[in-house]
Amino acid sequence: MGEPLPRVLRELYLGFHGFRTSVGGGLKALLPLFGRDGLVEINRIFRSAPEFPTEFVSRCLFFGDDGIGGYWGIKHDLPGKVIRWDAEWGEDFEVDGDDPLAAWLAEKQRYEAIQTRKPSA
Predict the structure, then answer these.
(1) Around Cβ 18, how many Cβ atoms within 10 Å?
(2) Per the domain annotation, does 1 fall within a domain?
(3) Which of 15, 34, 103, 116 has its CA 20 to 30 A from that of 4?
(4) At what angle do helices 7-15 and 100-117 cross, to 10 degrees?
(5) Sequence-ordered list of residues with C-beta below 8 angstroms from that of 71, at least 6 positions apart, any chain
(6) pTM of the model
(7) Contact 58, 52 (CB under 8 A)
């Protein structure tokens, strides 16, 4: 991709090669570095496809997805912060903390809480 991984992501990827899990009906993931739907491929798609806001996505490095259309990333001009972005939002995003794994765990807990409140069929 021609850019170094931010330190916090480099440390995660030295420990493991991403993961996918089904939580609350959606597939939550910290993307593997390479391969289909990996960090490199997803970022190349975002940066080259005309339907995405090129100026915005080129200033971000996306590393995870929430299973329902949202992605976690690090925006180059917000070092140390994890953002959540959905393509439907254009260039809008939310700050979702300062730790990628903590952002994923918080999302997992939200989905699990929703699942426990749903009445059984």
Answers:
(1) 18
(2) no
(3) 103
(4) 70
(5) 42, 62, 64, 65, 84, 85, 86
(6) 0.83
(7) no
